[in-house]
Amino acid sequence: MTLDPPIFSVASAQKEIGFATFSEELRLALSRLGRNFSPDDQNLLDFRVRPFMTLQMPRIVYRYPREDFVDADYYIRCTASKKWRKNRPARLDFVAYHSGRRTLLAGDESVGRLRLLFNLHLEDSVYSFAAIQPLKYLKRSDRQVSRAERQLAVVPITSITRAVSVVPILPPIRWKEPFAAP
Description:
mainly beta, seven-stranded antiparallel sheet, 182 residues, 3 helices
């Protein structure tokens, strides 16, 4: 007896990652690639989705004063809802991606947390996408980055440029206590 994987179609992917806007964002991403589906078209929910957990990208490693080199084995990971290494919570890396919007802090890149890496199988072709939960930049304060107005963005894999380290800025231990740098 074999069990079906939890993510096998657009509808199951939408249910598994927990974003009701997933199919609408996917429809928007497909329309940018020239594949148009009407909002009433239920066929989109039945198309096959094949998730994957690793995206391999090259990165430049800066080694001053020695010569820089390109590390070809740099991995970005997204396990969706599966546990990472059997006993750890799901791994959802942060990435920078081209969003088409210009921001003061990051140019034309936006930063978001991966929710799903997947291949979408249409009748005649396969498209690779990433479902990303975007972050927005706030004015300098103890809460610099928060979730964006859009809950989810579906972008082609080719628009991901690099991994990003997001370090939280923690508030002072005591409430309303001013922050003093160490």
